[in-house]
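Final report, closing paragraph on structural work. Over the funding period we assembled a curated collection of sequence-structure pairs, and we close with a single example.
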Amino acid sequence: MKIAVSGASGKTGYRIAEEALKSNYQVSLITRNNSIIPESLSNCNQHKISIFNRQSLDEALTGIDTLIIATGARPSIDLTGPAKIDAYGVALQVESCKRVGVKKIILVSSLCIGKLFHPLNFFGLILLCKKIGEEKVMNSGIDWTIIRPGGLNEKEENLTKQNIFYTQRDKQTEGSIPRRLVAKSCIEALNTKFASKNIIEITSNEENKKSTMEEAIQNFILV
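Its predicted structure, as stored:
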């Protein structure tokens, strides 16, 4: 399977690409022109483009089976960033997938999507913009999975002790998770039949009961 990761130079994106490589997928990186990628990804096919350039985006996604969207607006004095990246930017990527025949989209989103009265919305209404992006993915006609992580952290140590708490949409409002486990969850979703057309919320801690994504989804489907 050929996988493309957009936002692949970001803190979550490069980890997703690394996990995809560990699972022996062919990986293409979609990054901005001035992006720097880690040495671990140096052998990947890299497309340094603007996601707002339709032709370049189509060329980068041609022949790709799955696009994992890890693009996201960064904190900035430019409060239009979420609208540009999390809403319009995701929409452009979805439209490109439809044009070139990408078979699946995995979108990295966030807990509390769509909530108006939330501190994160002080940054350009980011949760509302992400909701627009999610809806574009869900209405694309392409197979999809949306991963909504809690607060992201950089921890790389003792990950085996961190058990992921999986729930369906709008069940979690707090909690955190290492970016590495978000990356692993994206790849796990590729191999989980029940992840198709599902929104999956994830946080982690040592107290959670150990579970696979498939077990968790089957459980909350049946509840």
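The radius of gyration is 16 Å. The domain at 2-222 is CATH 3.40.50.720 (Rossmann fold). We thank the funder for supporting this effort.
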